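Margin note from the TA: students keep mixing up input and output lines. Inputs are the sequences; the output is the structure of the whole complex. Example:
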Amino acid sequence: MKICILGLDCCAPDVIFNDENLVNIRRLMDGGVYGKLESVVPPITVPAWMCMSTSQDPGSLGVYGFRNRSDYSYDKLAFANSGSIRSFAMWDQLALEGKKSIVMGVPPNFPPRRINGISIGCFLTPDTVKDEYTHPADIKTKITELVGEYPVDVKNFRTDRKDWLRDEIFSMSRKQWEVIRWLIREQEWDYFQFVDIGLDRVHHGFWNYFDKQHVQYEAGNPYESVIPDYYKWLDDQIGSVIEMLDSDTVLLLVSDHGAQRLDGGFAVNEWLIKEGLLVLNEYPKEVVPFNKLNVNWAKTKVWSEGGYYARVFFNVQGREPQGVIPQDQYESFRNEIKAKFEALPDDKGQPMNSLVFKPNEIYRKMRNVAPDLIVHFGGLYWRSIGTVGYPSLYVQENDTGPDACNHAQYGMFILSSPNCPLSGPYEGARLLDIAPTLLDLAGYEIPDSMQGRSLVAGLEKKRPGAGEDQESQKIIHDRLAGLGYV
Amino acid sequence: MNKKKVVVIGLDGLEPSILESMLDRAELPNLAKLRDMGHYGRIQTTYPAQTPVAWSSFATGTNPGGHGIFDFIRRDPKTYQPDLALSEFLPPKNVLSPPRVVSLRKGVPIWRVLTQAGVPSTVLRCPCTFPPDADGGKMLAGVGVPDLRGGQGTGTFYTQDTTASAKEHEQVVHLQKGDDLKSHVIGPRNPRTRPISDMTSEIRVRVDRSAHKLLIDTNGTPSHLEVAEKQWSPWVRLKFKLSVLQSFSGMVRFYVKALSPHVEFYASPVNFDPSAPLFPISSPGTYAKELSEKIGLFSTLGMAEDHDGHNNQRLDEDAYGAQCEAVFEEREKMMWSELERFSEGFLFTLFDTPDRFQHMFWRFIDPQHPLYDPDLAAHYGDRIASLYRRCDRLIGRVLEKVDENTLLIVLSDHGFNSFRRAFDTNTWLWQQGLLALKDGKKPGENTDPGSENVDWSKTHAYAVGLGGIYLNMRGREEAGIVEEGAEAERVRKAIEQGLAGVVDSDRQAPAIRGVSRREQIYSGPYVDQSPDLLVNFIPGYRVSWQSAVGGFAENLISDNTRRWSGDHIIDPESVPGMLFMNRPVRNGSARMIDMAPTILNYLQVSPPPSMEGASLL
């Protein structure tokens, strides 16, 4: 069977499952199995999409976020690209079995993975005019013929110019879905995967106008309908793709993580400075990003990188160049720091209930340079601010531009396959279970490298139905009812 | 340069003879004014003289052979079964998709020609535009749009009278006794249940006897309404649940018939909700919703006027008349909402009400009709004329927006006449030995519509539709026996000669003028889908109710005793339409196929080669 995955980056289960205007999505839910999908730690686009496609955790992939330490030095942070993750993915299994795949915009996909089929660069593509962002190369020409300049992202989506942002997101998505339909209709494929990044951008841009619980929400604001409108737009696009599929297709709508409101930002490095764990030679006169700080590494024990969550790094003897923490004290020190993070209060003095993870406890393997701790401030209701120079630890504006939401640990999935023995709402599905489940349903081998389990393992698959009953004569005659002339 | 505009107002079924006498009596001042600006005359209708056929020829500029719509009803040669000819429901493309519907009208409609030429086009309620054409500009579909049951309009009668049972094309819901009742509105069929059951929307009905009204609570909008006796409610939006996750939206209007001795009320057919129709009814898809937000909710059903309700005596003359007036008003609002901002291109609006109204009220103006009653005629006899005056006032408003760059066309697709006597073509074919019934059955003995009673191995011809006769052709029909060539010719001749001038012995008058062969009247790519022969009835006569759906009446010719007392599916030469233009027209008679070239000519767009007529300008 064919596999078709329509990835909806950052799709929030509570939004998509509760909007009855999404008629195509509702029809899929009604005929399939759906529910929340527990994402990985950290629940971030990179590496979550590849965690899904490989069914391996971030540590096993060796990628802990967009930017990762290349080594144990203090300033070699590198952006992940397609070369950072070469682990065995669903499309590789298909290639092994002689089948072709189309992988469109599945991060990280620049430079475009040379798969058996078609590969199109994701939002990390620097310049779709200059760069070869497709494999094979001639696909780029066809895309340009179809939609002109191909947008992979809305650059500078963290902006105040909301009208512009909304229009850019919709315009990008229109072009991308045009290309999707062309690919599905004209190209050979047994596996198709697309990630709609517009949904992530629209959440980050407009969540505060939409979520009544958001601190910045104002009733009757002019952008209240932007997010629901985008979901409806996606529903229409999904409807158009459904029309083009064979009956013999495993169709999945899925997100890499969810979305939730941001109550604010926690200036983690400011806090580390206050705790004496991060020592600066010179405190900045204005707000300055971490990599521009004058850090006294000989006295610093802990530092952190900002983002939707915090990666926390220790300055360890024999590991970092000017390491301070003795190796035999590493674990007890780590427990201390973990407890401190967990005890943090919010801006009102109430417990922030942050979640702190030790990578070695949550990953099967730890490749490359893992953080020493991963922190979800306030369970991700607070983001992590890495910049320094704030008067308070609790910051309302984001240091990288206006951003209205954080990621949520749970994304969603809707799985529709004629032979799927599961139906209705499903609890307990995890991101890493997706690939084994799809391969199982579609009749492929499940590689040993995959860590998740097939949700339909051991269940007898349904035989595809005989199709709708023939209409009875009564129904035909009823079509003439009310004609008047008869 | 000033932009050219063409406004077309269709007044379905307006009969020239009535119109002309009213013009003579100066009762239609605006139409008279329009005539004096340019032209009034009769316009040839199509073979047959039916709404979807004629308007399709209007749209495409071709005879029916060029657009494929030959009747409201077609038959499947593989099963002999009748079905609606205007559109077809197809099973879902795959298990993930919803069911689909496709329009069966082919050919190139004028609105697609205009859109390709960059000329704005808005078409409101043209028949056979369900679903609307792609690349056809702005459209709202008309006749052909079904209700939520999938038919052309099935209403529901609610009654506490336990002896009441469903009549033709309606549903009956029995109510409990008392003044506080729970009931439901019947929605679409639920295809998932076995046996197939109905989706319903719950309502609660309480009787306020002192105020003579019903208080109805719904799960929709409005959630509470009060409807007085003999009154129609406004539109009520209801939800029908398919499952926990999916529901469909529909709209009804309630009419309270009586509160005693039994509580009796009526629900109109459940219309598509313009903001969430089950199938596309507008182009762009959001247009119907936008229109409803602008002018209020409006009937989306193709056959918007509930003639079955009136036929079944659930709605009396006043109730039916009130509903017709409401539909006319909705249509006028719709037209006006486009006309007031119309600055360029083509704007078409069809008012179907005159056709539906005359069908039901003809019995009040024809003293020879079997249902004619002098007292009722005294009361209701002026209503048709009143409707013509209403149309005249409508044209008066339209004339306000007509300037020197506007071509205004007002036309009807066919005329109207009395339907006094019903002729059963299948019974005639059986009498002639051209059709055989199984087991020695005779017409009338349990020979309901349906082909199970016909012995196809001995049948040379059969009738389905509002005037068509098909030969039972070998190689075409599933159980065909007639060979092309000499045998087919023999059968055709037998029918032609037998039917031409056939006499209604009870009335000592001829019923049928003659029979047309399809080769004589049609040309084009779709001729092979038409009936082989078309019966041209003389005014007063029409095909029987039974034969139209492939059934049989006991008697060859009987009185038509339904309230549907007027009709026009007779010899097209007897029911031309009427045509007004604010420009003079060339010599020669006007035909439906000339209208599209006329409009294109005025808008300076070349007609495609498929168009057969010529501009009247």
